[in-house]
Amino acid sequence: MRHILFVCSCNLNRSPTFVDRIKEKLDPKEFEVRGAGTQYGYPIIVNEESLAWADEVFVMDLSHEMFIWEHYPQYIEKVQVVGVSDQYDVGDDALIRIIDYWFERRWC
After folding, report:
1. pTM of the model
2. Looking at residue 78, what is its pLDDT?
3. What is the pLDDT of residues 59-92, one digit of tens each?
4. Dihedral over alpha carbons 21, 107, 30, 54 (to 10 degrees)
5. Domains in the chain and their CATH numbers?
6. How far apart are CA 102 and CA 93, in angstroms?
7. Which of 41, 47, 60, 91 would give a disulfide with 8, using CB separation of 3.0 to 4.6 Å?
8. Which residues face 8 on adjacent strands?
9. Cα 89 from Cα 79, distance rounded (Å)
10. Tens digits of per-residue pLDDT, 23-47?
11. How far apart are CA 8 and CA 60, in angstroms?
């Protein structure tokens, strides 16, 4: 079982949309997918436990990578920047098109 973690700022729009869309594309017997945020005050914040759980960590932008590097540098090698700006609502059609494109380039 491979564990994939998507990280954005609040875990409200980008990460949940990535999680939902990628879960549709990957076999649940082979992959577990979760999301987290970097900003305190939200329910699911990236932490040492979630980073240790993950085999791969996909962050939306460099600020999220920097957060992990500053707080959990031992996990920085797992991190890859996707490069999606914070302008989309959860489930936004444009964001889904970006996710589909990213998935095809990354996984196929």
Report:
1. 0.96
2. 98
3. 999 999 999 999 999 999 999 999 999 999 999 9
4. -80
5. 2-107 (3.40.50.2300)
6. 14
7. 60
8. 37
9. 24
10. 999 999 999 999 999 999 898 999 9
11. 5
Q: What is the Cα–Cα distance from 68 to 6, expressed in whole angstroms?
A: 12
Q: Tokens 């491979």, residue?
A: 2
N residues, the chain: 108
- Given a cut of 90, whether residue 107 has pLDDT beyond it is no
Torsions phi, psi for 90 (to 5 deg): -60, 135
What residue type is 101 in one-letter code?
Y
Give the 3-state secondary structure of residue 8: strand
38-43 LR contacts (CB < 8 Å, sep 24+): 38/7, 38/8, 38/9, 38/63, 38/64, 38/67, 38/68, 39/9, 39/10, 42/10, 42/11, 42/12, 43/11
26: exposed, middle or buried (C-beta count within 10 Å: 0-12, 13-18, 19+)?
middle
